[in-house]
């Protein structure tokens, strides 16, 4: 795999991104690829503190724009302190969620203008774009059933109604449709090992040479 590849994983809650990230890491490391596995929001100690603020259900309102700004603040900390240094030394970064999640959740889900998100993305990314994005797609009811079965207290997103996640899922599919050269879309209802094999093969095919 080309050194310095930046791979992002996306999908609604319960899609299996964490399981896929773990399996991909093992499979690619076996092939000698230097992998840094991380997530958003979070990924560094400071960005994880922003994550806690944005996910914790609290009494004080967090408006959609404020929520988006926190996502981008965490992202810039993560890019500056972890992602860019890793890519610069030639590692491949596997990141559980990135700016497509902001488009899907804050844009389609909460109604923040996509233009504003794109504007902040260009500022915060400073030229960096994912080399490839794996979208784990599944019906909202299946994802929510999986997510609710495994978690204790729901976070600020998990309490949202089904219609919110339908908008999130539809937005992800639109993004994938608009950029087929970047996205690899997989049916997340398939067995985890099968998904990992297919994702690894697709990534190696696209990001080698
Ligand atoms: P996770 O459960 O996959 O770790 O993600 C935490 C939540 O954060 C998830 O509900 C999606 C949400 N999120 C956004 O709303 N916008 C973003 O930009 C990111 C990265 C995550």
Q: Could you provide a short overview of the structure?
A:
With 209 residues, the protein is α/β, with parallel strands linked by helices. Helix content is 56%, strand content 12%. The radius of gyration is 16 Å and the shape is globular.
Written account of the structure:
This protein has 209 residues and is α/β, with parallel strands linked by helices. The protein is globular, with a radius of gyration of 16 Å. The chain has helices at residues 17-30, 45-55, 64-88, 99-109, 114-125, 140-150, 162-178, 192-206, and strands at residues 6-10, 35-39, 92-96, 132-137, 183-187. The protein has one domain (6-207): Rossmann fold (3-Layer(aba) Sandwich), CATH 3.40.50.300. The mean pLDDT is 96. α3 (64-88) runs parallel beside α5. 56% of the residues lie in helices and 12% in strands. It has eight helices and five strands. The chain binds thymidine-5'-phosphate. Residues 13, 39-41, 71, 97, 101-102, 105-106, 157 line the site of thymidine-5'-phosphate (TMP).
């Amino acid at each position: 795999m080309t050194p310095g590849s930046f791979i992002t994983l996306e999908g609604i809650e319960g899609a299996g991104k964490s399981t896929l990230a773990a399996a991909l890491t093992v499979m690619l490391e076996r092939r000698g690829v230097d992998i840094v596995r991380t997530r958003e929001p979070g990924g560094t100690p400071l960005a994880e503190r922003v994550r806690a603020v944005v996910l914790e259900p609290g009494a004080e309102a967090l408006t959609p724009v404020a929520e988006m700004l926190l996502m981008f603040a965490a992202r810039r900390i993560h890019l500056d302190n972890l992602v860019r240094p890793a890519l610069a030394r030639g590692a491949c970064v596997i990141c559980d969620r990135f700016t497509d999640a902001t488009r899907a959740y804050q844009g389609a889900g909460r109604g923040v203008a996509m233009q504003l998100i794109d504007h902040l993305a260009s500022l915060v990314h400073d030229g960096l774009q994912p080399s490839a994005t794996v979208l784990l797609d599944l019906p909202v009811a299946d994802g929510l059933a999986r997510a609710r079965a495994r978690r204790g207290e729901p976070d600020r997103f998990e309490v949202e109604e089904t219609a919110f996640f339908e908008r999130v899922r539809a937005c992800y599919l639109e993004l994938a449709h608009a950029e087929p050269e970047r996205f690899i879309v997989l049916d997340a209802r398939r067995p985890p090992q099968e998904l990992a094999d297919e994702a690894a093969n697709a990534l190696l095919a696209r990001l080698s040479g």
